[in-house]
Amino acid sequence: VEKEYDVCVDIADKKYLKIGGISSADIELKSEYVKDDFFEVKKQESDFVLLKDTSRYGVYLNGKKIERSE
Predict the structure, then answer these.
(1) 50 to 2, 14, 63: CA distances (angstroms)
(2) SS (HEC) of 13-40
(3) CA angle 66–42–61, rounded 5-degree value
(4) What span, in angstroms and rounded, lies between the C-alpha atoms of 30 and 70?
(5) Is the pLDDT of residue 5 over 80?
């Protein structure tokens, strides 16, 4: 299934990435539901791992909740 997206962000060279409703985020989400929640991920080899999650309901990837890496 082909999908159209409004924005494409190249994260290939990023070692850390902050995503959320704060202006200091690498990817800022503007929504009444996000507010000041954010999460941080770190690149490990070819994957990203969750480092920090300040969101009230957690972070989901393809419908499955992911937990912070220890």
Answers:
(1) 27, 14, 16
(2) CCCEEEEECCCCCCEECCCCCCCCCEEE
(3) 25
(4) 29
(5) no
Residue 36 has φ and ψ, to the nearest 5°, of: -105, 15
**Residue 53 CB contacts under 8 Å (≥ 6 apart), including other chains:** 39, 40, 59, 68
The tokens for 32 are 């009444």
For the entire predicted model, the pTM comes to 0.73
Dump pLDDT digits (tens) for 6-57. Answer: 777 888 888 999 999 999 999 998 888 888 999 999 988 888 888 888 888 8
d(CA 44, CA 38): 20
Token pair 């995503």: residue: 19
